[in-house]
């Protein structure tokens, strides 16, 4: 198959390229050439800005994968331009599109977030999900049954630019006392980027349309198991000190940023780590072992410069301060 990937050199995109090429597909990239421009020297790349250079996209593709659409107006331009050039338009959305997570087992038919002013284009924590929902709507309005919407949860693995999962892998490998979120039974959901890439290509190859939640694993994943697996893989002497929700609130510890991959299962977030992925599993979503994901992430971390600073998680001084407080309780 001939596949055009908009983006393709950062995280999910680079793994989509690798997976597509491994399956024998012909890949073309369309991007500005600003992120890892030398990553795929043997892959045809059309250099351009998706807002003003879409006229450079000459040719036909069996599928287009839009990995970097965040603003409805811009996504509409791409979808309109490419509707006659492809048989399948794949838009990478997000679990964040849902209006809230007060329901356990949210599925693809549940309500999505809305903006009072749909002309807003500033991407913030408050607008991100609703903007993605509007992007989905543009793609579906233009491509109809030729559209495929993927809603990933937390994507993890090598080359993750957010460090939300990477923080735990690195921190546990360092060993010692570690501030852990809430309780060992607290749940989280995540998906290995390579599993996600393979799933997307499987859907394309099978000419599947529709909307799919895409996170994992296929059995509940507790934070206790996640951290224990990181400890096992790294062989560290890590000792986990579990900070309950009261302690987290009282000390202004921010879930998801200070404690990556964790949100309290209360109120409107009670279902955040319990999203229904049965539709994706039935369509062919497969999962790597957690051990393999941790191992490969750790290998990648060890290749980073010594002065690399995590973009997520507690700073060492802050964690030390909090552990001292926790230990005197």
Give a description of the structure.
With 329 residues, the chain is an alpha/beta fold. The protein folds into two domains: 2-152, NAD(P)-binding Rossmann-like Domain (Rossmann fold, 3-Layer(aba) Sandwich), CATH 3.40.50; 166-188 and 217-267 and 289-327, UDP-galactose 4-epimerase, domain 1 (Alpha-Beta Complex), CATH 3.90.25. Helix content is 33%, strand content 16%. It has ten helices and 13 strands. The chain has helices at residues 12-22, 72-82, 128-143, 166-174, 193-205, 223-234, 245-250, 278-282, 290-301, 316-327, and strands at residues 2-6, 26-31, 44-47, 63-66, 89-92, 147-152, 155-156, 177-181, 187-188, 191-192, 210-214, 221-222, 239-243. The strands form four sheets. A seven-stranded parallel sheet has the order 3-2-1-4-5-6-11, with helices on both faces. Helix 1 crosses helix 5 (193-205). The protein is globular and about 65 Å long. The mean pLDDT is 97.
In angstroms, what separates the terminal alpha carbons? 61 Å
Count of alpha and pi helical runs:
10
Biggest sheet, spatial arrangement of strands: 3-2-1-4-5-6-11
Largest sheet: 7 strands, parallel
> What would you say the CATH architecture of the largest domain is?
3-Layer(aba) Sandwich
Q: What is the name of the CATH class of the largest domain?
A: Alpha Beta
Secondary structure: helix percent: 25-40%
The average pLDDT score comes to 97
Residue stretches low in confidence (pLDDT < 50, at least 5 long) are: none
Total count of strands: 13
Q: How many separate domains?
A: 2
- Give the overall form: globular
CATH superfamily membership of the largest domain, which one? NAD(P)-binding Rossmann-like Domain
Radius of gyration: 20 Å
What order do the helices and strands follow?
EHEEEHEHEEHEEEHEEHEHHHH
CATH topology of the largest domain: Rossmann fold
From the helix content, strand content and strand pairing, which structural class follows?
alpha/beta
Percentage of residues in strands: 15-25%
């Amino acid at each position: 198959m001939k596949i055009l990937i908009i983006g393709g050199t950062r995280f999910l995109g680079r793994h989509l390229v690798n997976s597509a090429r491994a399956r024998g597909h012909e890949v073309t990239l369309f991007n500005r050439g600003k992120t890892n421009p030398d990553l795929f020297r043997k892959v045809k790349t059309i250099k351009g800005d998706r807002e003003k250079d879409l006229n450079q996209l000459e040719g036909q593709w069996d599928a287009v994968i839009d990995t970097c659409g965040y603003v409805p107006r811009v996504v509409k331009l791409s979808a309109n331009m490419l509707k006659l050039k492809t048989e399948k338009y794949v838009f990478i959305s997000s679990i964040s599109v849902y209006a809230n997570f007060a329901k356990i087992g949210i599925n693809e038919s549940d309500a999505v977030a809305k903006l009072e002013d749909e002309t807003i284009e500033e991407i913030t924590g408050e607008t991100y999900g609703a903007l993605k929902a509007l992007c989905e709507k543009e793609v579906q309005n233009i491509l109809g049954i030729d559209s495929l919407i993927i809603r990933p949860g937390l994507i993890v693995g090598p080359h993750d630019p957010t460090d939300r999962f990477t923080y735990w892998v690195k921190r546990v490998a360092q060993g010692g006392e570690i501030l852990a979120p809430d309780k060992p039974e607290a749940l989280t959901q995540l998906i290995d980027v390579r599993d996600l890439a393979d799933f997307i290509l499987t859907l394309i190859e099978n000419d599947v349309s529709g909307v799919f939640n895409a996170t994992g694993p296929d059995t509940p994943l507790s934070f206790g198991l996640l951290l224990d697996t990181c400890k096992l893989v790294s062989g560290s002497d890590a000792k986990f000190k579990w900070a309950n929700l009261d302690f987290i609130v009282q000390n202004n510890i921010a879930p998801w940023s200070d404690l990556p991959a964790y949100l309290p299962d209360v109120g409107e977030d009670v279902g955040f780590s319990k999203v229904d992925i049965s539709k994706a599993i039935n369509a062919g979503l497969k999962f790597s072992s957690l051990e393999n994901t941790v191992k490969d992430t750790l290998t990648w971390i060890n290749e980073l410069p010594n002065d690399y600073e995590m973009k997520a998680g507690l700073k060492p001084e802050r964690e030390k301060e909090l552990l001292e407080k926790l230990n005197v309780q």
